[in-house]
Design brief:
Length: about 350
């Protein structure tokens, strides 16, 4: 079992993490143990976890980003109240990014804060969503605009959970692994670019390498005032595309799929105004275009730009980007004209 110990939280990664979870829960003597999960993790993951827990109250919500709302937060708070949760209670978030975002937000705000523990079950949540203390819900289709910063007490990562996922969900997480490589570790990106098939049962080393990048950045800048903005590469355009897809598509894009498009577009902008080389730009495009299916929905520039103008990262009414000077080196707080954003979207459509 591997460990990363930080001032405010600890991460445990390995096949035996559930034994460690049970030990910690016994020693902490929480007054109540709640477990939040979605319909998928209730079916596939809860049977794996439940033998290690006793006297729990489970809360199940429907799966999907569309349910990361204040209405479902209210449902969680109502469950807390119905079972007389006090400030010595704990919430275990068993699931992907929707569950860790929503559950952490509910725990951090209930009675001004109860402990919560993340047990991520998707690749995306293992390397990104469950780590870093960003919690929140979507509001009127805008992503994560209501939220707080608060770290979980513990994060327990078992790569074995990946066996419960379909291939497209594993691919979804690879987008964030690649993002970490692009902003910080060229050697990792080159390794990813050479890898076309994965033995997910042996993915612990890749997960550990990726999450170490995020942990190090968050440690330097926990409240996203400076270098943590590097983690936003691909997310300005990507979040707008994800929101648009939620509004218009019968089967919306997954987060990683939208961010992959965003990274292609923002790499195009990086080449145009930050000097990203043609060869590195091509490598980025090749990586995503060969691993992610082409999006067939509408990319309407005017609509997407309006969505971007409501992004929480903006300042003084300007759309704010994190761009690449080269693979492994970023430029923060870059603004660009709407025309260049439109050109980047047209480039993606042309692939």
């Amino acid at each position: 079992m591997k460990e990363i110990i930080q001032k405010d939280y600890e991460i445990f990664l390995g096949d035996e993490i559930l034994e460690k979870l049970a030990e910690i829960l016994i020693n902490k003597e929480y007054s109540k143990i709640f477990v939040l999960m979605d319909s998928n993790t209730h079916k596939h993951c809860w049977p794996i976890v439940s033998p290690y827990l006793v006297n729990t109250e489970i809360i199940v919500i429907p799966a999907g980003e569309a349910n990361k709302t204040i209405q479902y937060a209210e449902m969680v708070w109502e469950k807390f109240q119905a079972h007389f949760a006090d400030r010595s209670a704990v919430l275990l978030n068993l699931g992907g990014g929707v569950i860790t975002d929503l559950g952490g937000f509910c725990a951090a705000t209930y009675k001004r804060g109860i402990d919560f523990i993340n047990i991520p079950t998707t690749l995306l949540s293992m390397v990104d969503a469950s780590i870093g203390g960003k919690l929140g819900v979507d509001f009127k289709s805008y992503k994560n605009v209501i939220g707080v910063f608060k770290h979980p007490k513990y994060i327990f990562i078992n790569p074995g959970f990946l066996a419960t996922l379909p291939e497209e969900e594993k691919r979804n997480g690879l987008a964030e692994v690649c993002k970490h490589a692009l902003i910080e570790d060229k050697a990792l990106f080159e390794k990813l670019a050479k890898t076309t098939t994965y033995d997910w049962g042996k993915s612990g080393a890749m997960i550990f390498q990726s999450l170490k990048i995020k942990v190090a950045i968050v440690k330097k800048d926990p409240f996203e005032k400076d270098i943590r903005k590097a983690l936003n590469f691909g997310h300005t355009i990507g979040h707008a595309i994800e929101t648009s897809s939620l509004l218009h598509d019968k089967t919306p894009l997954k987060h990683g799929e939208a961010i992959a498009i965003g990274m292609i577009c923002e790499a195009f902008i990086s080449k145009s105004i930050q000097g990203l080389s043609n060869s590195e730009f091509k490598s980025i495009c090749d990586y995503f275009s060969t691993r992610f299916p082409k999006y067939k929905g509408k990319l309407i520039a005017a609509e997407l730009i309006v969505l971007m103008k409501n992004d929480k990262k903006n300042r003084e009414g300007l759309i704010n980007f994190t761009l690449l000077k080269k693979i492994g080196k970023v430029k923060l707080d870059v603004n660009c004209h709407d025309e260049l954003i439109e050109k980047s979207l047209e480039f993606y459509k042309s692939l």
